[in-house]
Specification:
Distance between the termini: 60 Å
Largest sheet: none
Shape: globular
Structural class: mainly alpha
Strand content: under 5%
Number of strands: 0
Number of helices: 8
Order of helices and strands: HHHHHHHH
């Protein structure tokens, strides 16, 4: 019986951790508030063509979406740009973070930073 106790406690601990993660996800504890990051990323689809090309003209529809995101949940933009989903879509974070400036948005991240993260410049050289 004593040998089954550690396994039981490990199972209970694992269940508690999974439950906590589920509750945080369900309550919208992420950078995008109650909006799932996938939905926030999808809303930025008009920006996809310029997220990898620093010289491309940013379409007005992209600027509108970025501005709305920055006004509502500013940390969400960085969360989207630095997410694995963005990498899979071929987005270059060092270029994508320049979109708010290219849109002349006043309330934008300063420089080429996402919070404390500075996307690498290597992405610009590809």
């Amino acid at each position: 019986m004593a040998s089954k106790m550690p396994s039981f406690f490990a199972a209970v601990l694992a269940l508690m951790l999974v439950s906590q993660a589920f509750v945080q996800e369900a309550s919208g504890a992420g950078e995008c508030g109650k909006t799932p990051i996938q939905s926030a990323a999808a809303s930025l689809s008009p920006c996809l063509s310029v997220a990898g090309n620093a010289k491309a003209k940013v379409p007005p529809s992209c600027c509108t979406k970025v501005n709305a995101l920055l006004n509502g949940t500013p940390k969400c933009l960085c969360a989207v740009l630095l997410s694995p989903l963005a990498k899979q879509a071929g987005i270059k974070p060092a270029i994508a973070i320049t979109i708010p400036k290219r849109c002349n948005i006043k309330n934008r991240p300063v420089g080429k930073k996402c919070g404390s993260v500075t996307p690498s410049h290597e992405a610009q050289e590809d």
